[in-house]
Amino acid sequence: MKRLLLLVLIASRLDAATILIAPDDEMIRASRAVVVATAESSRTRWSDTRWIETVTTMRVDEAMKGSLRDGETFDVVELGGIVGETGLMVAGSPRFADGEQVLLLLETNRRGEWTAKNLSAGVFRFRGGFAVRTDVETNEPPRLAEPFLRYVRKQSGTDFRRSGQAEACPTCSITSYLITNPGEGGTLGMRWRSFASTVVFLSHGTQPGALNGGVTSVQRGLSTWTDDPSSNILYAYGGTTARDSGFVGSDGVNSIQFNDPSNEIPGSFTPTGGATLAIGGAWFNTSAASTHVYNGERFYTIVEADLIVQNGITGAGLTGNGFDHVLAHELGHTLGFRHSDEAPSGGTSSSTALMNSSVAFNSDPTGAALQAWDREAVAAVYGSGSTCSPPSITTQPQSVSVAKPEPITLSVAISSATQPTFQWFVGQRGVTNAPIGGSNSSAITVQPQNTTSYWVRVSNGCAPAADSNAAIVTVNGCPAASIDAQSQSTTIVEGTSAT
């Protein structure tokens, strides 16, 4: 029988290596690649020098540094494993479970293959919201995962990982740029259906100490999004409103509430210890009939937007770049954009964008200007500024009468439209409380038991949607009578009977 070889390298115990850990920034700079990746499968082999190695195929979820790219697969080669009846154990050499997501600091071995830098020192595993090294002895505290990932991106020197051009990432979904609420069961992002007309914002009150009471910064923020050449966004300032609350009910007014008149932001501004400077959001309806499709993806349709500014803000940023930055940032949220540094799996990220989650308020260098990630998001979510053409129905569904329930096909024809969607409903035209599930086609086959009306709404992300006429399937419920058999003539003797 072959013997089991136990090899301990630079280790004082069998389950963890003792390694001199360099500071995070030094480790990151010295790594040839830094990625967040998910393990797909592992296998073992003999190396050319007769070591046993474990090779794990990884899929890149986020490439932060180096030549690897999002969505690419690659192999990580580590010492140790079992081939047949022979095993090699190397303490501190990492192993990866299928489906496990990790942060990898990578270098290459003498054959040019990827391997974790300094064994397990180059592997951070995600545990309960923390990023931790689990296979190496350290006295370091666990790191909060999201702040640590932001730090790694910044230290990697490729904080914005795309080309920096105002073009959408070809492998990213539009939704990846938008706010979603998966914790509340929602997977859709929100966006304005179109800008067939300008979205007008009205302000309430003033921001003490800000230029023109804050209106100057509002106008700069609105212009920032409207003037971007990669989109068709149309935002404008329209004066003042008596409305003194932002998120206490939707009332059809797109408002900017200066100095938080209704105390909707907890507390008040403090110059130390951190502060919420403003919040921005949008209203939408979750019913299927109120969503829309754009470039093949479905979205909640924004119907109203509001922005609230904290009370008592002070500091140099109030009349400098900081306040411009804050209001332009919050207006970005009213367009549906998420924080640039909080990317979902498969999404791009940046901590230098206008939509970054924090701002150096008193020393901000950019003000309201869009940065590379912001322009990427705009290009993806709101197109290239071309005219948005809504669909129109050229052939209406036709009413029909049947003697008894039987399958009937209703259909419409439409003018040329980009990626149209069809939603059929039961009831009179415009009544959307009875949608027919799975009916995204220009034709539908129905078999009503009683006389029923049907109609269809056609949309393609451009307002307005097209509603067909109602087609009525009339079921008479009274099939014609027929004789299936009858008696033959017969002759009988008087006084007898016949049936």
Biggest sheet layout: 8 strands, antiparallel
- Dominant shape: flat
The number of strands is 27
Structural class: mainly beta
Q: Alpha-carbon distance between the termini?
A: 98 Å
| Average pLDDT metric | 83
Gyration radius from CA atoms, angstroms: 32 Å
Summarize the structure in words:
By secondary structure, the chain is mostly beta strands. The chain contains 5 helices and 27 strands. Helix 3 (215-226) crosses helix 4. The N and C termini lie far apart (98 Å). Mean pLDDT is 83; it is low at 1-19 and 159-167.
Brief characterization of the structure:
This protein has helices at about 25-30, 145-155, 215-225, 320-335, 370-380; strands at about 5, 35-45, 50-65, 75-80, 80-85, 85-90, 100-110, 115, 125, 130, 145, 190, 200-205, 235-240, 255, 280-285, 290-295, 295-310, 395, 400, 410, 415, 420-425, 445, 450-460, 465, 470-475.
List the helices and strands and how they pair.
Layout: E1 5-7, H1 24-30, E2 33-46, E3 52-65, E4 73-79, E5 81-83, E6 86-90, E7 101-108, E8 114-116, E9 123-127, E10 130-132, E11 143-144, H2 145-156, E12 190-191, E13 199-204, H3 215-226, E14 235-240, E15 255-257, E16 278-284, E17 291-294, E18 297-309, H4 321-334, H5 372-381, E19 393-395, E20 400-402, E21 408-411, E22 413-414, E23 421-426, E24 443-446, E25 452-459, E26 466-467, E27 471-475
Parallel strand pairs: 1-6, 12-18, 13-14, 13-15, 15-18, 20-27
Antiparallel strand pairs: 2-3, 2-7, 3-4, 5-6, 7-8, 7-9, 9-10, 10-11, 16-18, 17-18, 19-22, 21-24, 23-25, 25-26, 25-27
